[in-house]
Amino acid sequence: MIERLSSPDLLEALDANMAGYWIPYGRGPHCTLHAGENGAWFYTGVPHPLFNGVIRAKFGADEVEAVREALQARIMERGAPALWWIGPRATPGDLGERLAAAGLQPAGEVPGMAVELGALPLDADAIPGFSVERIVGAPAQARWARIAGAGTGFSEGAIEALARIEVSLGDPQYRAQHRYIGTLDGTPVASAALVLEHGVAGVFAVATLPAARRRGIGQLMTLVPLLDARQLGYRIGVLQASSMGRPVYAKMGFSDVCSYRLFMQS
Q: Are 200 and 7 a contacting pair, CB within 8 Å?
């Protein structure tokens, strides 16, 4: 269990927790997964780069080209692009330069953020007509996937592909994960996921449908899973922030602890 933001193990835990969220998708039907001590990459064919690529880059210098070629073969077969996430602990140290030289395109940077859960409020301010519940079962997982996809701005094709994979997943694929749906006046409008792995509580897939935004729903969808994690004894919450979510997380007390450089392979 990671106890403090100052822990020397925090960055490794953040990387590993993120891999813990994405790896189960690589175990879905017609998907590809390679995960081990020397890195992890997966390919689902979902037509959005978030669902294909390298999520834990820990390769030897002689392995990078083989991974790139293996991903390229999947891309040529199914057409969906892929992302390489290059964090501060990625190897080899010049990985970004190697990818750029191979023709991959820089796709921006994403902050890795963390918060001490003890600093969070004990509960959240209520939003009239809004509630959050943890969901289980294939029908609810499909509904969760459609809300998460639409709230993130995915195409209809990507949303339906994600829903098909999501309903196929269960124990043991993501037994360390929780899914949440937020409902406003009886209508599902928001999503979140919680990953309890590698000593930290990771929050993912926080998304709100456009018509329900600017009401504080995103903050609640982040806070409720973290409060659940705190009750289970976790001390640190982590996430990778979008540009839209970053100000919300900073207001909650999250601070930047690292940055991920993204490279697009297509």
A: no
